[in-house]
Design goal:
The protein has one domain. Helices cover 38% and strands 23% of the residues. It has helices at 4-19, 21-33, 58-61, 72-77, 86-93, and strands spanning 40-45, 53-56, 66-71, 99-104, 111-116. It is globular and about 35 Å long.
Length: 124
């Protein structure tokens, strides 16, 4: 059961991600087309997370979270994602053409959030 405070923060994150869905879809497509990864991961944070490459700085764009781009492989290297759980992770992720994974860093509430790209977020 998610507390109301965590749910409020999660809803705030989802609202921001929906606004950026088209841009995140483009980044995801490029990362997969250039074979950086089959499973792009977007890192949402309010601190200065040193995971991945910065895409959107929250202070520059007025968002609640900064968004970085990373990969499943990098999170395995950092032991954020346990290598023995990769198949479960891929199953939860679903089709990377249709879905995205957000690694939400929010204090003790850090978790993976899986959600579809907006239907208006088209592939190149």
């Amino acid at each position: 059961m998610i507390s109301s405070d965590i749910q409020r923060l999660l809803d705030e994150l989802k609202t921001q991600i929906k606004q950026l869905s088209t841009e995140l879809k483009e980044v995801s497509d490029e990362m997969r087309q250039h074979q950086f990864t089959e499973y792009p991961i977007f890192v949402a944070h309010q601190e200065n997370a040193q995971v991945g490459e910065m895409l959107f700085d929250r202070t520059e764009y007025g968002f609640p979270y900064s968004i970085n781009a990373s990969t499943m492989e990098r999170l395995i290297e950092l032991t954020v994602l346990n290598a023995s759980k990769v198949e479960d992770f891929k199953k939860a992720f679903g089709d990377p053409n249709k879905n995205m994974c957000i690694f939400w860093i929010s204090g003790e509430n850090t978790r993976f959030v899986f959600m579809p790209f907006n239907s208006n977020a088209k592939s190149k």
